[in-house]
Automatic annotation (TrEMBL):
<keyword id="KW-0472">Membrane</keyword>
<dbReference type="InterPro" id="IPR004776">
    <property type="entry name" value="Mem_transp_PIN-like"/>
</dbReference>
<dbReference type="GO" id="GO:0055085">
    <property type="term" value="P:transmembrane transport"/>
</dbReference>
<feature type="transmembrane region" description="Helical">
    <location>
        <begin position="123"/>
        <end position="142"/>
    </location>
</feature>
<feature type="transmembrane region" description="Helical">
    <location>
        <begin position="59"/>
        <end position="81"/>
    </location>
</feature>
<keyword id="KW-1133">Transmembrane helix</keyword>
<keyword id="KW-0812">Transmembrane</keyword>
<keyword id="KW-0813">Transport</keyword>
<feature type="transmembrane region" description="Helical">
    <location>
        <begin position="275"/>
        <end position="294"/>
    </location>
</feature>
<feature type="transmembrane region" description="Helical">
    <location>
        <begin position="222"/>
        <end position="238"/>
    </location>
</feature>
<feature type="transmembrane region" description="Helical">
    <location>
        <begin position="190"/>
        <end position="210"/>
    </location>
</feature>
<dbReference type="GO" id="GO:0005886">
    <property type="term" value="C:plasma membrane"/>
</dbReference>
<feature type="transmembrane region" description="Helical">
    <location>
        <begin position="154"/>
        <end position="178"/>
    </location>
</feature>
<dbReference type="InterPro" id="IPR038770">
    <property type="entry name" value="Na+/solute_symporter_sf"/>
</dbReference>
<comment type="similarity">
    <text>Belongs to the auxin efflux carrier (TC 2.A.69) family.</text>
</comment>
<keyword id="KW-1003">Cell membrane</keyword>
<protein>
    <submittedName>
        <fullName>Transporter</fullName>
    </submittedName>
</protein>
Amino acid sequence: MNVILSAIIPVGLIIFLGYVVGRTLRPDVQSLSQISVYILAPALVADGLYQTTLSGQNVIILLLGFGILSVLLYGLVWLIAKLFHLSPLVQKSLMATTILPNNGNMGLSITSFALGAAGLERAIIYMIGSSILLFGVAPALLKGKGFLDGIRVVLKLPLIWAMLWGISLRVFAVQLPFEIDKAIAELGRAAIPVALIILGIQLASTRLAIGKYELFAASLRLILAPFVAWVLGMALGLKGLDAQIFIIQSAMPTAVNTVVLVTEFGGDAPRVARTIVVTTLGSFLTVPFILWLVTR
């Protein structure tokens, strides 16, 4: 229980501080988000891959697992949409909130506090797959454009280039001069608290409304997704820390940037915004339970 509280309480405190800042100071959240997306998060990914002790097999199996999980969840949402005759707009919204987890703001923070550096480096690998889905594949799915359009979006992501750079440094055992690696590491350490503050600020400006749709969408994200991940993890032979991270990261609430994507490329933005709030608040009940299960 101490491990769970030590993971959840610091995360909740930082989000709460962001919420207070959002309600009182009303900062420019777009500028903070740009700093996080274009500087801090890429630095965290590059440093994590540069310093990682994971084998290529660990990386491949985690990314493969995330890909299969996303396809399974997409298929389940498609089936639900057909059974209940959901409109295309609602189907897109439900798909987005179900398959796009908040592995950056929440996932990295909780795994870092709960499972330490070894858990964090695995969580970063999961987040890379999630970022590709969020910024590369999801816009094409929402807008209905093809695979090539999704690839173009992916190649514009700083996270992707940071990933390639970190892997290259690791593979070729490059020693960076003038302790540049320490500067990158410091930037990476700032990524998690800044991301949580941004989440708190965004929650401060989002209206809370809970109806049948929001509860159903939240149950898909917070309950169904980790259950499917648990079954899939066993099927893939994931064990130990790999299995724990795979399930925990799959249990995260809906990514905050989902509402931005839906607004830009298609879907019901108000529904998505309400679902983000409900899943984020609900995760403080479901995630501790899942942490308890996987760390027993």
